Write the structure tokens for this entry.
Amino acid sequence: MSERIRILRGDITQQKVDAIVNAANTSLLGGGGVDGAIHSAAGPELLEYCKTLGGCLTGHAKITPGFRLKAKYIIHTVGPVWRGGNYNEDELLANCYKNSIRLAVKNKLKSIAFPAISTGVYGFPLERASGIALNTAMEFLNVDESFEKIVFVCFDDRAFNIYNQTLKEITEINKTDNS
Ligand code: ADP
């Protein structure tokens, strides 16, 4: 299981996977943070393509070519803005991971890389977001044995450490549950 989940410290635009995921906004017309980095690395063709998509709802996902990226596709998903935790933020964030993975499977892709969706400008607490990201990924990999790899790309040491700690905790809970 955990061999198919990887936690890396780095820049998602450099990942050699079938699809990288963009933490976009509902317009899909670009923004700051990871969205800006992906648009700059993919090239201006990405924006032209995105203009034809009609935006994207929070928790949903849309796919585009990767253009100049090493990844063949980009899956754009819109994370929830953190408003204190009582506005369905957890479920909406889980939907981002589920719908992105669903689109990858539908397009016969085998590897995907995620940034820490919603944890930048959208303010979702990183510990909580990492638990949702990792649990959703593990639940999917438990039922799909052919999917090769889900990579979590952490942009800084803090995110990297939190993801690793969360994965350790989840793995220990699962061990206890199964014993
Ligand atoms: P959101 O609006 O969904 O919060 P942000 O782009 O502001 O999106 O941040 C999401 C996460 O992506 C943050 O944890 C940020 O550190 C991270 N990030 C920013 N640039 C990159 C990059 N090039 N590769 C991977 N992660 C990145």
